[in-house]
Give the backbone structure.
Amino acid sequence: MVLIYSEPSAKWRCVFRECKALCCSGGKEITAGDIKRIAAATGLSPDEFAELEDDKGLFRLRSVDGACLFLRSDSSCKLHGTGAKPIFCRMYPFKFDGIIYADEVVLKVRAFKECPGFGRGEKINEQFEARIEELGNQFVKEIKDYLKAKREGKTPEEIFK
């Protein structure tokens, strides 16, 4: 389940070159599914780009000088166009605001108003929010799948293959 918090009249447009990809700080949350997709697209082993300490099914992208490992000097993303961008990145300008682990995993997301592109561009419409909800549900599913595999005794390395 995904809970989305945003203003009905919110607008957003990515201005990554203007803000030097402010959103691409290191240490973003990724799932085992993200790790599989990134490894397949880049040929890197998971330990080359992710911190593999498990935190309830979440991992973190490695960083270089505080920025995402995949951020280029021109503020573009090495993963853009590969189909391997982490769910967190594809959900932007919404960011995770918490995860509730109960009978059902609930992901809370909110619009990141600190983004320089917030208030610009096109209105965040129902279709945009539906895409955010779809990605959020994928994120929750990947956490559940990882936790299930872990309960079955699989190691993270087995799960990432």
Observations:
- The two ends are 27 Å apart (CA to CA).
- The chain has one domain: 2-160.
- Residues 14 and 50 are 25 Å apart (CA to CA).
- The longest helix spans residues 126-151.
